[in-house]
Amino acid sequence: MRTLLDSNGWMTRGWTGPNIVALGGGHGLSATLRALRHITRQLTAVVTVADDGGSSGRLREELGVLPPGDLRMALAALCDDTDWGLTWRDAMQHRFSSEGPLDNHALGNLLIVTMWDLLGDVVEGLDWVARLLNCKGKVLPMCADPMEIEADLVLDGKKRTVHGQAKAAKAPGKVVDVRLSPTHPRVCPETIQAIKDAEGIVLGPGSWYTSVIPHLLVPELAAALQQSSAVKVMVMNLQPHTDETEDLTLSGHIEAFRHYAPDTKIDVVIVDPTAIEDDDDLESAAESIGAKLIMRQVRAGSASEQHDPLRLAAALRDAFEGYLSEVGFSEL
User: Which CDD domains match (predicted)?
Assistant: First the structure.
């Protein structure tokens, strides 16, 4: 037997690891990708494309392209740890500050849109940027069309509908339903193939209704997830109560997932014990989607709202332990 991780928690040479697909967007997906890099070299990010705020929203409105921001963050998370990779990571995340039209635009957003314009292909453009950054993995969009999120919220007993990810994430009130427009967007063949080829799939953490749930609202993508035989892992947020999930417990997050994907089985739910607040239903909620609950310290410090990459990598390693044992890597 060979070990997958060395004494420092880094993946040893000579083993590529399982083929893993991570779904999400923004900072949550970036945290997952930074962790997964420690346990596999076969890594694909499938990224939500509903952002309509900031630099991404402006480029989307002006040029009619997919919002590049979450795609940029996934690429930056996959840069290698050489001077080349780290420098390009910082360049991708750099934002201009001016009194003109470039204000608050991220360089990486402009670079991605430039490659799309030159090559005329979303996936090929992302691949070229990934090669420039020497990324350790592949980045794909959730679908080929820019999406709009519609959310129904209830505040003081009154229901209203807001349009757009930026408003859905920040508008006061409790989210009771979310939808995508268009309802049947085009999906890149590469994205569906990545799901079919996956041996492990990770959903979360992240903005639940605007980064995680949207993947379940794309019919072709949802069907691929439901039919996949991969080990499916859900990583819960460290802070359950955000603007869009006000008063929603961790078990409520799981119940929301089950509502939108009733036929999709999850194998493992990972939760940091410090994130649990008077939630007696958490274990039964996990069981309701077929999952085993794994409690691990994955927070990067007692007061941090960030996931620690090595701690999360260790928890994900445990989640995939059954698969790893089958292929001869049980001594972890």
Answer: YvcK_like
Residues of the chain with pLDDT under 50: 1-11, 327-332
pLDDT at 324: 53
Residues 6+ apart with CB under 8 A from 14: 2
Look up residue 317 and give its two tokens: 């390693």
Helices (H) and strands (E) in the chain, counts: 13, 10
Structure tokens at 251: 């078990």
Please state, in angstroms and rounded to a whole number, the distance separating the CA atoms of residues 68 and 113.
7
Query: Looking up tokens 């992240």, which residue turns up?
Result: 206
Q: Which two tokens stand for residue 57?
A: 């929203």
Q: What integer best gives the mean pLDDT of the chain?
A: 89
Distances (CA, A) of 280 to 103, 222, 235, 293, 328: 47, 29, 18, 13, 37
Q: Which amino acid is at 70?
A: D
Q: Tokens 């998370």 sit at which residue?
A: 77
CB atoms within 10 A of CB 94: 12
Calculate Rg over the CA atoms of the chain. Answer: 19
pLDDT (tens digit, 9 = 90+) per residue, 261-314? 999 999 999 999 998 877 778 999 999 999 999 999 999 887 778 899 999 999
Residue carrying structure tokens 């930056």: 76
Q: Which of 58, 206, 203, 210 is nearest to 149 (CA)?
A: 210
